[in-house]
Design brief:
The complex is a heterodimer of chains A (194) and B (586).
Chain A lengths: L2 E8 L4 H11 L3 E9 L5 E9 L8 H10 L4 E6 L5 E12 L6 H9 L3 E6 L2 E8 L1 H13 L3 E7 L3 E4 L6 H6 L21
Antiparallel strand pairs in A: 1-3, 1-4, 2-3, 5-7, 5-8, 5-9, 6-7
Chain B lengths: L2 H11 L3 E3 H11 L4 E4 L6 H7 L5 E4 L3 H15 L3 E5 L3 H5 L1 H9 L4 E7 L15 H4 L6 E5 L5 H13 L6 E6 H5 L1 E3 L20 H13 L3 E5 L2 H5 L2 H11 L3 E3 L14 E4 L6 H9 L2 E5 L5 H4 L10 E6 L13 E4 L2 H8 L9 H10 L3 H4 L12 H11 L5 E4 L3 H9 L8 E2 L10 H11 L5 E6 H6 L4 H7 L4 E6 L4 H10 L14 H7 L4 E4 L5 H10 L4 E6 L36
Parallel strand pairs in B: 2-3, 2-4, 4-5, 5-7, 6-7, 9-10, 9-12, 10-11, 12-13, 13-14, 15-16, 15-17, 17-18, 18-20, 19-20
Antiparallel strand pairs in B: 1-8
Helix pairs in contact in B: 2-3, 2-8, 4-6, 4-20, 18-19, 18-25
The chains are: A alpha+beta (194), B alpha/beta (586).
Chain lengths: 194, 586
């Protein structure tokens, strides 16, 4: 079963390796992992989707969360579980198409609410955002209509809980919850390259 | 004005400009370090060049693995952070086994390695290795430092990480140019942020009440005493719990000494080579109170068959250990001493005499089977050696052991009444650990009697450190349990591989001559009659002494739970030991 974690980590060299290495050590496959800046300078946000082996059962999520916290550069971990959330993925799809057979791809893109972002004499590029099944649906239709899909680039999942901020780090920062005590998170005096 | 004074004053005015090398040592001095174990080389030379200015004793090892094990033994014996230092490349990779050993047993050590200059990082420069990459999964954390101003913060942070929470090793990799360049040294300014406990630590009142209810209601409870008792300094609290509630105590290998061996409630070591009554008690228990232990596979046999009727209270500081191997009914996730201090007021007392009598009765003929109670047949058994060493040293020595049969015999027959007196590699099971770890223990506790016990196999893995003993004039006693085999592997071959003794018979040098070549006197002991005199000679000798105990060759460690079997499916000690009987005995 797939499981999704959000991790807030220090934005420093090597942190991604430490997180990825943890899952390698636990022999858990990473299905997707996206990283980018968060709402706070110096802190990156990761959405990690993993598939723990069946034999680890329902104990795996807690253990993964506990192990993530043991990494010095990890500031906060949110186990999404089955909580209400919005999950999106971005894909860029390059399709072989000429002036003669472009128009039906335009129609397909319209149906999938995708956009054409590049047009060349012999190809075009589609940008699509949505849940995994929507992206896979478009790719499948393209394949079935015998359009040659040249390249697919997918971002992996990004997940955010619905409703009020539930992340501990946001509370600790005093964002989204004014009553929470403000706490210093990033070791500011610490040299940037450590 | 000496440089040392200059450095100390640097703490105060924080305007002193020092080289990175000087900052390194000044920071170590500031952290209270007095001894380091190391080996110089190109990329760490600037640091070594500055060493003479600082009040730090450097113990020159013969192989960097020894440095890491010595730092480890130092930490285990003293409770302080051990420090190892090595150069880049091969110096750094040689530390790896020692770092992994410390990681598995949660030992606080800080390893400092030199690294090639930051300008050539990643170019496969001479003696360059990505040691922070190599040690990533076997350290709590590691640092690559490329600027002198980052050295003090990194080293101070390393000390905090090594000691806090569940302790462990930390590595600081410092480029050569960072050692050579200068920066302002500001010890106070380099102080790390206050320690942030693991966010999943939790001791809810409800769980405390549940735990207290389980303990009060239990008919057949057992305390499982682990290494965490030593780490958390909770010996008193565990003892109070056991005594007040009349609960018998089984210990893990690393928990030996955490609860006095001679205490009437102490059952002894549990697990693969634990005594039958300990493992039987665990299998029959209706409640296990796990104190700072992690249900290692050598302790539980198999998860499915382990203590099937028992509820489990797991008190542990590492949340990642909860429900890892054994599901906890009540988890109290925090420092053990803190938890017990919360728990004890809820426990008024209890009569446990019926259960204690039942355990005593279950010992049955176990004592009769015990080799130490069998008549002296003239053969020399390793168990005799351990038993006699315990008797002669009155259980007061620090014993460092290697891994294998002698380690298990030591655990069974040397009865540790005092904490931090057994230095042994539990989790990783590192052969070659005893000699360097014993050296580290002696450096940490110069006034204590130290016995290094190793098999003939493991001893040869790090025997080069005899020269370190000689150079440092360390008064340690070395006992080699020499059976001419890689004994534990041979035992597995005997039990599980049809006695196919492939690659386990071992030709060794004359260890007494080897010691002599290092200027260390020694003696060989072939029978029990000469044992005591030899041990006393070693103890009375001012300086190191080596005894080569030529013990029974094909002796096996009993009881034994075969891998993958349940605790109650142990192989008992034979009723009579065929090895004990000579033809003339028949």
């Amino acid at each position: 079963m797939l499981h999704t974690f959000i991790a807030y980590v220090e934005d420093k060299p090597g942190v991604l390796t430490r997180v990825a290495s943890l899952f390698r050590r636990l022999n858990i496959n990473i299905v997707s992992l996206t990283v980018g800046h968060s709402e706070r300078r110096g802190i990156s946000r990761m959405t990690i989707v993993v598939e723990p082996p069946d034999h680890t059962g329902d104990r795996a999520p807690d253990r993964i969360r506990a192990s993530l916290y043991k990494l010095e550069n990890v500031i906060d971990v949110d186990d999404i579980g089955k909580a209400p959330n919005v999950t999106r993925e971005l894909a860029l799809i390059k399709v072989a198409a000429t002036a003669h057979n472009r128009s039906h791809i335009f129609e397909l893109a319209e149906v999938f609410r995708a956009r054409i972002v590049d047009l060349a004499p012999d190809s075009l590029m589609i940008e699509i955002t949505g849940v995994e099944s929507k992206i896979e649906g478009l790719i499948q239709v393209l394949n079935e209509t015998e359009d040659r899909v040249l390249e697919v680039c997918r971002s992996g999942k990004m997940t955010m809980r619905r409703g009020k901020h539930s992340s501990g780090v946001l509370q600790a920062m005093g964002i989204g919850n004014e009553s929470a005590p403000k706490a210093e998170i990033a070791p500011d005096n610490f040299a940037d390259n450590i | 004005m000496s440089n040392i004074e200059k450095n100390e004053s640097a703490h105060l005015n924080n305007t002193t400009r020092l080289t990175g090398a000087e900052i390194l040592w000044a920071t170590l001095v500031g952290e209270g370090v007095q001894e380091v174990f190391g080996y110089p080389g190109g990329a760490i030379l600037p640091a070594y060049d500055a060493l003479r200015k600082f009040p730090i004793r450097h113990i020159l090892v013969r192989h960097e693995q020894g440095a890491a094990h010595m730092a480890d033994g130092y930490a285990r014996a003293s409770g302080k952070v051990g420090v190892a230092i090595a150069t880049s490349g091969p110096g750094a990779t040689n530390l790896v086994t020692g770092i992994a050993t410390a990681m598995m047993d949660s030992i606080p050590i800080v390893c400092i390695t030199g690294q090639v200059s930051s300008k050539v990082l990643g170019t496969d420069a001479f003696q360059e290795v990505d040691i922070t990459g190599v040690t990533l999964p076997i350290t709590k954390h590691n640092f690559l430092v490329t600027r002198p101003e980052d050295i003090a913060p990194a080293v101070r942070y390393a000390f905090q990480i090594a000691q806090s929470g569940r302790p462990g090793p930390v590595l600081v990799d410092i480029t050569k140019d960072a050692q050579q360049n200068s920066a302002i040294f500001d010890f106070e300014g380099a102080k790390p942020h206050p320690y942030k406990p693991h966010p999943m630590l939790t001791v809810p009142d409800e769980a405390l009440r549940d735990a207290a209810d389980l303990i009060r209601a239990a008919k057949r409870p057992v305390i499982l005493a682990g290494h965490g008792i030593l780490q958390s300094n909770a010996g008193e609290q565990v003892r109070t719990l056991a005594e007040r509630m009349s609960i018998p105590v089984g210990t893990t290998l690393l928990g030996l000494g955490a609860f006095p061996a001679s205490h009437p409630l102490n059952l002894g070591m549990m697990g693969m080579h634990g005594e039958s009554w300990v493992n039987d008690a665990i299998q029959q228990a209706d409640l296990l109170i796990a104190c700072g232990m992690r249900f290692d596979d050598r302790v539980i046999g198999t998860p499915a068959t382990y203590a099937p009727n028992a509820k489990k209270i797991h008190i542990e500081i590492d949340p990642a250990e909860i429900n890892k191997n054994i599901k906890a009914d009540v988890a109290l996730v925090a420092d053990l001493r803190y938890v017990l201090e919360q728990l004890l007021p809820l426990l008024p007392g209890r009569d446990g005499s019926a259960w204690l009598s039942a355990i005593a009765a279950s010992k049955g003929d176990a004592a009769v089977r015990d080799i130490k109670n069998l008549p002296d047949s003239g053969h020399l058994y390793a168990a005799h050696v351990m038993h006699d060493l315990w008797r002669i040293t009155e259980g007061r020595a620090i014993v460092a052991t290697d891994v294998g049969q002698h380690q298990m015999w030591e655990a069974q027959y040397y009865r540790h009444d005092h904490p931090r007196t057994l230095i042994t590699s539990g989790g990783l099971g590192t052969m070659g650990f005893a000699l360097p770890a014993g050296i580290g223990a002696k450096v940490a506790c110069p006034d204590k009697e130290v016995w290094i016990i190793a098999g003939d196999g493991g001893f040869q893995m790090t025997a080069c450190e005899l020269a370190t003993i000689a150079q440092e004039k360390l008064n340690v006693n070395v006992a080699i349990i020499n059976n001419g085999y890689l004994g534990m592997v041979r035992q597995w071959q005997e039990f599980f591989y049809d006695k196919n003794y492939e690659s386990t018979p071992l030709v060794s040098p004359d260890f007494v001559k080897l010691a002599d070549a290092h200027g260390i006197p020694g003696i060989a002991v072939r029978d029990r009659g000469n044992l005591e005199a030899a041990v006393q000679t070693a103890r009375n000798h001012q300086g190191a002494f080596l005894i080569n105990f030529l013990v029974e060759q094909e002796d096996s460690v009993y009881p034994m739970i075969p891998a993958g079997k349940a605790l109650h499916e142990m192989i008992r000690r034979p009723g009579h030991n065929p090895l004990l009987e000579r033809p003339e005995d028949q």
